């Protein structure tokens, strides 16, 4: 097997192959022959599916900087931070491994278009993932996600997001605000009962969501309307109602700061961590969300309004079986009262 592997790599080196298939080789270690000498700089795609790899070499980025990597169906437990040095990486497939986290350096992959990390053991995603400005397809199915960073909504090129079969109880307020994002699949997140109203008229999958659960079992803010209850993101500090006509002082101050620095300076980097606490500074850079009625940024409080999916024209697409609701997150009593999902 070893001699056959060396021969395959040697031929690829001599003939300047762009694609190299090393699937089903029962490899337990990354072949060091791939990193020796020159000749593989022409390699564009490396397929190593269905092996037993547990780690990647740290100098992979130095030797093979222009790869599309398929390392699905291995036994990888860790991806080294050096993955961020693969600056030209366009497609990264890590499905069916044993990853518990991704390094923040994944955010350095500016050319990355496809990321498949389904069927792993991930609890959350790196916040710097939103820096992958070319990312179009993100698949995180069948993990253990309970939380999705709101920064994910800032991905400018994301067209398809699949997070089916996780443990999500809520979604970021701004998910779906981007016009580029057209396909969102969150099927079989049994505790998920609310979809941001931005997702209305998008292609969504939400079968298997909305199972009954006692509110006391989840330590999150919840909002009820009739017999329906949805959970809100953990960052939300307060829930407003149509009777709350005065905004909290902290919310007013944050909105004022946001508009002042955006209109006058066009650059929030002017504010140093010395000027404001780090948590507030981060909120100014990335608010909890934007009002679904008027796009006003929101920082601590939201005014939610429920629209059961089965009572919308989209009910037929889901065979009237879903208990999920669309949630409009508004910035004030006025927006809450005037928001209409169907208008």
Automatic annotation (TrEMBL):
<keyword id="KW-0433">Leucine-rich repeat</keyword>
<dbReference type="InterPro" id="IPR032675">
    <property type="entry name" value="LRR_dom_sf"/>
</dbReference>
<feature type="domain" description="Disease resistance R13L4/SHOC-2-like LRR">
    <location>
        <begin position="76"/>
        <end position="165"/>
    </location>
</feature>
<dbReference type="InterPro" id="IPR050715">
    <property type="entry name" value="LRR-SigEffector_domain"/>
</dbReference>
<protein>
    <submittedName>
        <fullName>Leucine rich repeat containing 28</fullName>
    </submittedName>
</protein>
<dbReference type="InterPro" id="IPR003591">
    <property type="entry name" value="Leu-rich_rpt_typical-subtyp"/>
</dbReference>
<dbReference type="Pfam" id="PF23598">
    <property type="entry name" value="LRR_14"/>
</dbReference>
<keyword id="KW-0677">Repeat</keyword>
<dbReference type="InterPro" id="IPR055414">
    <property type="entry name" value="LRR_R13L4/SHOC2-like"/>
</dbReference>
């Amino acid at each position: 097997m070893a001699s056959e592997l060396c021969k395959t790599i040697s031929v690829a080196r001599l003939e300047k192959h762009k694609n190299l298939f090393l699937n089903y080789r029962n490899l337990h270690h990354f072949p060091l022959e791939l990193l020796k000498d020159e000749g593989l700089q022409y390699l564009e795609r490396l397929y190593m599916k269905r092996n037993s790899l547990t780690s990647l070499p740290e100098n992979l980025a130095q030797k093979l900087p222009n790869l599309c990597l398929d390392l699905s169906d291995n036994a990888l437990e860790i991806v080294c931070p050096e993955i961020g040095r693969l600056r030209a990486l366009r497609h990264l497939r890590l499905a069916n491994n044993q990853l518990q986290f991704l390094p923040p350096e994944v955010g350095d992959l500016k050319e990355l278009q496809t990321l498949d990390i389904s069927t792993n053991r991930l609890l959350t995603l790196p916040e710097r993932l939103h820096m992958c400005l070319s990312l179009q397809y993100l698949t995180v199915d069948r993990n253990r996600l309970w939380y999705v960073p709101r920064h994910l909504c800032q991905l400018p090129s994301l067209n398809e997001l699949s997070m089916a079969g996780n443990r999500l109880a809520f979604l970021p307020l701004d998910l779906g605000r981007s016009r580029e994002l057209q396909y969102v699949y969150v099927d079989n997140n049994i505790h998920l009962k609310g979809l941001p109203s931005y997702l209305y008229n998008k292609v969504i999958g939400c079968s298997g969501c909305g199972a009954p659960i006692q509110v006391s079992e989840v330590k999150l803010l919840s909002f009820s309307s009739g017999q329906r209850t949805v959970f809100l993101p953990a960052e939300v500090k307060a829930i407003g109602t149509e009777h709350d006509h005065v905004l909290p002082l902290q919310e007013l101050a944050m909105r004022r700061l946001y508009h002042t620095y955006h209109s006058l300076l066009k650059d929030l980097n002017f504010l140093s961590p010395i000027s404001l606490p780090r948590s507030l500074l981060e909120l100014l850079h990335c608010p909890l969300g934007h009002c679904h009625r008027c796009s006003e940024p929101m920082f601590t409080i939201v005014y939610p309004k429920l629209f059961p999916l089965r009572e919308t024209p989209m009910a037929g697409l889901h065979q009237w079986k879903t208990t999920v609701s669309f949630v409009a997150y508004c910035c004030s009593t006025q927006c809450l009262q005037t928001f209409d999902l169907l208008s």
